[in-house]
Fold Uracil phosphoribosyltransferase.
Amino acid sequence: MQLHIVDHPLAASSLTVLRDERTPRSRFRPVLYDLAMMLVYEATRTLPTMPVAVTTPLATTSGVRLAAEPVVVPVLRAGLGMLPAALNLLPDAHTAFIGLSRDETTFEPTVYLEAVPSDLAGRPVLLLDPMLATGGSALHCLRLLADRGARGVTVVSVVAAPEGLAALESGGPAVGTADLTVVTAVVDERLNETAYIVPGLGDAGDRIFGEM
Ligand code: URA
């Protein structure tokens, strides 16, 4: 597994606004949009391109376009907060959805939606989930994506916990993901007793959409 921490003053200042408990939903969403842009920009740095000719008003020159359209997979609910930025950068991406809720005693994910193309072979996949906490949800998604043929998956998160990264490091190959990258703005200290990331930013879904 490769870990890429986006170390940039704009990412760090956006993250600070997201962490702040006083940041209202109305501001949280656009700041998450900005930060997701930066994270997806980094997550797509190695996407393969193919050469194309382009004609400017003055001459014909060489350009590129993406060789394969990526598949973007927001993990519901909170991953939806990162989707608009991802689709702005990747307007032709295919969007798939995985819906997971968390059992508040075992912290294990329960699946309520899997709307994912049946054949992901050869397609770069971006899994969007702002909080990489225990890694249980991400591993569930990686298993599903690998079962559908995905080999190169990039998990795009805002805050990662060491526990979640360790789970992906050991579990990623076991679920069939040959080429796994994690892009995040920060690796935080730890999980607390209810599997929330500390210091984190709280419940990302609640911060984006409101408490359930
Ligand atoms: N999910 C969240 O939204 N926040 C955490 O801290 C952990 C999981």
